[in-house]
């Protein structure tokens, strides 16, 4: 049992600390309720301790409730989610360019071979020859459209990457600046909770942009790393720089020019698309177009036109790849220039037949041109399916970590309302104490005749 | 675990988003009747679908070709049957003419009828199968046969017209006119010669066109030189025993061969003509047009005695036509059966595609749609309750 000299003035003083504590708790609860929906807001809690000598209650700290490892995992998962989402969007555009399975090159290619078969069947029929020119134009237009679309997509991503690198540097600078303020604030005994919230929000943007992950947050030397290399350490920023051409980009550390292999976040997805995925698709599409050009031209040049006298050595296509494949303008202008005959006889369609047979002829790779194209379509589909799957996984991860983070740092308005009720009753009780002590003091003074 | 309002709203919106996404996908599936609308939906299934789609495209082309060629071959069949009938009528006329009681004017009347049959035959031989295409001129675009007062000339080439219906299935859709109407031409065959350089020097004429032979030429080169003279003949070399070759010179029209040796006696050296200038080994014309023209001449000149030979020739010609008709009929059967085969193959592929794409799973799609709708409605109800509870708690507080 306490033997302290409890006095009425001591009681007054203690009641005042109780009122202060209740006010502080009410203020923190209000702050929490106000930020219940603020992303990455870490709820605050008033840490109370008993004042020495039973002199009431003391506020020892306004604590920011956060588990650094969970928050770091959440931000990393958000980076992955952002990257997977961006990758999925870009690859969706690539897939849409192909228009398969019903409105793409596979239909045009089949139509092209079939048109050659028609010419083989009716070599001197102008209708069959016109139909071949029409089918060819559709095929080459589709090749050109897909190739142009891929290039345009690449060209639209490159400047965006440049701007985002600038944004990363700016965000990193702000994080470094906050690091400074937080460090000095902590040293000066100030409440830096809101600064830390701001920093988490900035790092979250960095995570989404570049897959950056925070380490040692919220205490210690605050560091933000990209692919294992520091972007921000304390107040120091290691800036990135991007060197671009219309269709390519390379990112390096501004300080030493060393390459940065960005794979995470929105930027990672965009860089991967520009430097790897789109070029791969372009390469394979060009290979198919070049295969069509080479195979058809070789056979076309061996045949004879419908001219009088028949002419040999006429190429059917011009161009070298998907971007510039086009029908020989001489053929487009005069269908007699189609080398359907193997002998020079007008109704000999043997050469056209040999070209039509290319539809099912295996090339050097062991597969037909259509099979090569189909493999490309399936590859694009697989890339997108993988990105979509990655997005689903990242979404689930983000949801899981969000729930975990919320369980620690989130605001429960029910909790806060309950706390406010408690604060209110505590405040009322403290007020009652004050009134009682006041009454007692008044009684005492009256009794002693003051 | 603590549950917070924000956490609850994230969880609820995630559930609603996922449910909505499932519903959206299912409604697209249901509307399109396929579980695979784009490659990323199921890349492995798409690989099979694209392959099947290509096969269907090629098959349909094959079917179209087969249908067109069936029609052409059917036309050929009708023409050849008409030709056969005409030859039968011609034979009936000749049998009638052999009756010794007919007068010269009777024979003239028969000759007139025969002339009509011949004209009809020439017309049939020039039947068109399409724009710029004839049934009986090989792969040329020229009108197959032209008729003058004394001869009928073939203007087409010797190629057989073929088309491919599907890989490995090729059919003949047109024979050169010479196979039917000028089945055998006037042909001279030389004696066996060395395949090497012959050392002959000199000139000769073929149907009035001069051919020059030099010492360095082989028999094959001499044949090429004859063909190059554009004399209305076709020269070729035929291998015989002992690695030797014989020169064959054939007329490509009903005109007889006219071969005149120059001073150096090149043709004689080749065994084509004898010292008297006569063709040594001559295969006389014996074909449809020649037989009809010969019979006509016999009737016009009252040469009744020769009609028996003409009858034999006409019978031979009729046999040839019938045999070619039978062959073309077999090609028509191949076209028809290929068409049927490709159609059933298409049907099988389409069934496979619908299985791969899930188009055959409409019932399952609708069932899933129902389940997803129920889940979505339940999630909305749960969200409403949760939000209402939060609101109530707030108002109580």
Notable characteristics:
heterodimer, A: 450 residues, alpha+beta, 4-stranded antiparallel beta sheet, two-stranded antiparallel sheet, 10 helices, 10 strands, 10% strand, B: alpha+beta, f41 fragment of flagellin, N-terminal domain, Alpha-Beta Plaits, 2 domains, 13 strands, elongated
Which secondary structure elements does this structure contain, and how are they paired or packed?
The complex is a heterodimer of chains A (450) and B (397).
Chain A: H1 8-34, E1 44-50, E2 57-64, H2 68-98, H3 105-121, H4 126-187, H5 193-210, E3 213-215, E4 223-226, E5 229-233, E6 236-237, E7 240-245, E8 248-253, H6 265-302, E9 317-318, E10 326-327, H7 329-333, H8 350-357, H9 369-409, H10 413-447
Antiparallel strand pairs in A: 1-2, 3-4, 4-5, 5-6, 7-8, 9-10
Chain B: H1 5-32, H2 43-97, H3 104-125, E1 128-130, E2 133-134, E3 145-147, E4 152-154, E5 161-166, E6 169-174, E7 187-189, E8 202-206, E9 209-213, H4 219-228, E10 233-239, E11 245-251, E12 259-261, H5 266-269, E13 282-283, H6 288-300, H7 307-357, H8 362-396
Antiparallel strand pairs in B: 1-2, 3-4, 5-6, 7-11, 7-13, 8-9, 8-12, 10-11
How would you sum up this structure, described in words?
The complex is a heterodimer of chains A (450) and B (397). Chain A is α+β, with helices and mostly antiparallel strands and 450 residues long. Chain A has 2 domains: 1-65 and 410-429, no CATH class; 73-396, no CATH class. Chain A has 10 helices and 10 strands. Chain A has helices spanning 8-34, 68-98, 105-121, 126-187, 193-210, 265-302, 329-333, 350-357, 369-409, 413-447; strands at 44-50, 57-64, 213-215, 223-226, 229-233, 236-237, 240-245, 248-253, 317-318, 326-327. In chain A, the strands form 4 sheets. Chain A has a 4-stranded antiparallel β-sheet. The longest helix of chain A has 62 residues, at 126-187. Chain B has 397 residues and is an alpha+beta fold. Chain B folds into 2 domains: 56-183 and 288-343, f41 fragment of flagellin, N-terminal domain; 187-283, Alpha-Beta Plaits (2-Layer Sandwich), CATH 3.30.70. Chain B has helices at 5-32, 43-97, 104-125, 219-228, 266-269, 288-300, 307-357, 362-396, and strands spanning 128-130, 133-134, 145-147, 152-154, 161-166, 169-174, 187-189, 202-206, 209-213, 233-239, 245-251, 259-261, 282-283. In chain B, helix 1 (5-32) packs antiparallel against helix 8 (362-396), helix 2 (43-97) packs antiparallel against helix 7 and helix 3 runs antiparallel to helix 6. The radius of gyration of chain B is 39 Å and the shape is elongated. At the A-B interface, helix 2, helix 3, helix 8, helix 9 and helix 10 of A face helix 1, helix 2, strand 5 and helix 8 of B.
């Amino acid at each position: 049992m306490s033997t302290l000299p409890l006095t009425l003035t001591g009681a007054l003083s203690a009641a005042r600390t109780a009122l202060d504590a209740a006010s502080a708790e009410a203020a923190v609860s209000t702050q929490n309720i106000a930020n219940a929906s603020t992303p990455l807001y870490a709820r605050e809690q008033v840490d109370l301790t008993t004042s020495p000598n039973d002199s009431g209650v003391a506020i020892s700290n306004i604590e920011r409730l956060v588990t650094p490892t969970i928050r770091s995992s959440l931000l990393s998962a958000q980076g992955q989610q952002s990257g997977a989402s961006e990758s999925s969007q870009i690859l969706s555009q690539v897939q849409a360019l192909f228009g398969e399975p019903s409105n793409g090159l596979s239909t045009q290619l089949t139509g092209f071979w079939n048109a050659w078969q028609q010419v083989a069947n009716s070599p001197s029929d102008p209708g069959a020859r016109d139909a071949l020119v029409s089918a060819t134009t559709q095929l080459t237009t589709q090749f050109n459209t897909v190739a142009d679309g891929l290039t345009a997509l690449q060209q639209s991503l490159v400047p965006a990457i440049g701007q985002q690198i600038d944004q990363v540097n700016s965000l990193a600078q702000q994080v470094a600046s906050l690091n400074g303020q937080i460090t000095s604030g902590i040293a000066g005994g100030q409440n830096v909770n809101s600064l830390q919230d701001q920093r988490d929000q900035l790092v979250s943007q960095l995570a989404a942009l570049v897959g950056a992950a925070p380490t040692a947050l919220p205490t210690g030397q605050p560091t933000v790393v990209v692919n294992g290399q520091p972007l921000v350490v304390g107040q120091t920023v290691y800036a990135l720089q991007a060197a671009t051409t219309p269709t390519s980009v390379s990112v390096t550390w501004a300080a030493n020019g060393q390459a940065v292999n960005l794979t995470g976040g929105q930027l990672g997805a965009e860089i991967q698309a520009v430097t790897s995925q789109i070029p791969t698709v372009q390469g394979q599409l060009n290979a198919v177009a070049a295969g069509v050009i080479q195979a058809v031209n070789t056979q076309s040049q061996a045949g004879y036109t419908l001219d009088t006298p028949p002419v040999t050595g006429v190429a059917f296509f011009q161009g070298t790849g998907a971007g510039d494949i086009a029908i020989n303008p001489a053929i487009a202008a005069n269908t007699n220039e189609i080398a359907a005959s193997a002998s020079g006889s007008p109704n000999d369609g043997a050469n056209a037949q040999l070209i039509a047979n290319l539809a099912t002829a295996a090339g050097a790779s062991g597969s037909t041109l259509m099979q090569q194209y189909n493999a490309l379509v399936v590859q694009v589909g697989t890339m997108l399916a993988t990105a979509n799957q990655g997005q689903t996984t990242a979404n689930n991860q983000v949801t899981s970590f969000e729930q975990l983070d919320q369980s620690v740092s989130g605001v429960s308005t029910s909790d806060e309302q309950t706390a406010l009720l408690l604060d209110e009753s505590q405040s009322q009780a403290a007020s009652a104490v004050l009134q009682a002590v006041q009454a007692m003091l008044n009684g005492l003074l009256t009794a002693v005749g003051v | 675990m603590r549950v917070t309002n924000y956490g609850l709203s994230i969880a609820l919106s995630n559930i609603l988003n996922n449910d909505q996404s499932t519903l959206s996908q299912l409604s697209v599936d249901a509307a399109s009747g396929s579980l695979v609308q784009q490659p990323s939906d199921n890349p492995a299934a798409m690989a099979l679908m694209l392959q099947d789609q290509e096969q269907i495209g090629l098959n349909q082309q094959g079917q179209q070709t087969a249908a067109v060629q069936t029609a052409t071959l059917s036309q050929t069949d009708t023409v050849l049957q008409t030709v056969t009938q005409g030859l039968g009528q011609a034979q009936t006329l000749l049998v009638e003419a052999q009756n010794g009681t007919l007068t010269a004017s009777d024979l003239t009347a028969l000759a007139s009828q025969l002339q009509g049959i011949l004209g009809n035959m020439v017309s049939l031989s020039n039947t068109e199968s399409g724009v710029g295409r004839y049934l009986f001129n090989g792969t040329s675009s020229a009108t197959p046969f032209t008729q003058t007062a004394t001869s009928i000339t073939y203007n087409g080439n010797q190629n057989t017209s073929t088309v491919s219906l599907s890989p490995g299935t090729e059919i003949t859709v047109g024979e050169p006119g010479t196979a039917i109407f000028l089945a055998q031409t006037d042909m001279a065959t030389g004696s066996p010669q060395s395949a090497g350089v012959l050392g002959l020097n000199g000139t000769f004429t073929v149907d009035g066109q001069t051919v020059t032979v030099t010492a360095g030429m082989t028999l094959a080169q001499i044949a090429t030189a004859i063909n190059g003279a554009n004399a209305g003949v076709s020269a070729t070399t035929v291998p015989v025993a002992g690695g030797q070759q014989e020169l064959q010179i054939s007329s490509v029209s009903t005109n007889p061969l006219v071969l005149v040796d120059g001073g150096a006696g090149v043709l004689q050296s080749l065994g084509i003509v004898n010292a008297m200038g006569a063709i040594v080994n001559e295969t006389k014309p014996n074909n449809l047009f020649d037989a009809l023209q010969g019979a006509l001449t016999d009737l016009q000149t009252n040469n009744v005695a020769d009609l028996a030979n003409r009858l034999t020739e006409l019978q031979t010609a009729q046999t040839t036509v019938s045999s070619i008709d039978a062959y073309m009929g077999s090609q028509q059967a191949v076209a028809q059966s290929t068409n049927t085969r490709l159609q059933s193959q298409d049907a099988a592929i389409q069934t496979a595609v619908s299985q791969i794409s899930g188009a055959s799973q409409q019932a399952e799609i609708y069932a899933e749609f129902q389940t997803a709708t129920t889940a979505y409605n339940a999630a909305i109800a749960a969200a409403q309750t949760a939000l209402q509870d939060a609101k109530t708690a707030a108002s109580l507080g």
